[in-house]
């Protein structure tokens, strides 16, 4: 007996419940559309987050908070004659040296490549741990690759009698600046 089932009926048969029909070529499934949309939204959200992040960094850039360049360093009587005082080394990057006739303030920045030397009291010198530069107690370079002496910062007396350090003003020995006002504070 010939099969008299029409094409329409065949189509209905294939859509009968329980039987899943594979999408035909060119036909997009609902699930495919939904996942494409989800992917699109995810990409959009990621791009937006990136733009917001960049905007945030622009609005609130990294700021390096440095200690003030000018500060009071206590009363002269609190310093021992002949000592290299390290109380401001970590916070302000300088040593205060008390001599019988006065004070000077040395920068802790090695003039070779900027490392921080150590004060070796037993050897009476500053020694840089990076490449071995050495400086006298006055800051003169005596060994290693350091090309010039340590710099000095301006030191004066504040109105209240405390030592006042101004790191905005530097004095370089090789330029003859250690004899200028502020490079040394006479104090007997
Ligand atoms: Fe001090 Fe090189 S940085 S010796």
How are the SSEs ordered, and which strands pair?
Blueprint: H1 7-14, H2 30-59, E1 70-72, E2 84-85, H3 89-92, E3 94-99, E4 102-107, E5 118-120, E6 125-127, E7 134-136, E8 141-143, E9 152-157, E10 163-171, E11 185-186
Antiparallel strand pairs: 1-10, 2-3, 3-4, 4-9, 4-11, 5-6, 6-7, 7-8, 9-10
Bound molecules: FE2/S2 (inorganic) cluster.
What does the model show?
By secondary structure, the chain is α+β, with helices and mostly antiparallel strands. It contains three helices and eleven strands. The strands form two sheets. Strands 1, 2, 3, 4, 9, 10 and 11 form a seven-stranded antiparallel beta sheet that branches. It has a four-stranded antiparallel beta sheet with strand order 5-6-7-8, with no helix packed on it. The chain is elongated. Bound molecules: FE2/S2 (inorganic) cluster. The site of FE2/S2 (inorganic) cluster (FES) has 13 residues, from loops.
The Cα radius of gyration reads: 38 Å
* Helix/strand/pairing category: alpha+beta
Output the CATH class name of the largest domain.
Mainly Beta
Helix share, percent: 10-25%
Concise synopsis of the structure shown:
This protein has 188 residues and is an alpha+beta fold.
Which key phrases capture this entry?
single chain, 188 residues, alpha+beta, Rieske Iron-sulfur Protein, 2 domains, 7-stranded antiparallel sheet, 3 helices, disordered N terminus, binds FE2/S2 (inorganic) cluster
């Amino acid at each position: 007996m010939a099969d008299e089932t029409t094409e329409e009926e065949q189509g209905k048969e294939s859509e009968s419940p329980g039987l899943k029909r594979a999408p035909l070529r060119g036909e997009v499934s609902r699930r495919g559309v939904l996942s494409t949309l989800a992917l699109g939204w995810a990409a959009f959200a990621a791009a937006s987050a990136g733009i917001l992040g960049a905007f945030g960094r622009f609005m609130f850039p990294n700021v390096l908070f440095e200690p003030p360049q000018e500060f009071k360093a206590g009363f002269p009587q609190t310093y021992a004659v002949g000592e290299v005082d390290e109380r401001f080394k970590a916070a302000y990057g300088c040593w205060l040296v008390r001599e019988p006739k006065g004070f000077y303030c040395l920068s802790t920045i090695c003039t070779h490549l900027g490392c921080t030397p150590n004060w070796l009291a037993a050897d009476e010198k500053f020694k840089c741990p990076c490449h071995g530069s050495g400086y006298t107690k006055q800051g003169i370079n005596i060994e290693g690759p350091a090309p010039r002496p340590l710099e000095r910062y301006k030191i004066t007396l504040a109105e209240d009698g405390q030592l006042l350090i101004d790191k905005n003003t530097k004095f370089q020995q090789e330029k003859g600046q250690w004899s200028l006002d502020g490079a040394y504070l006479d104090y007997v």
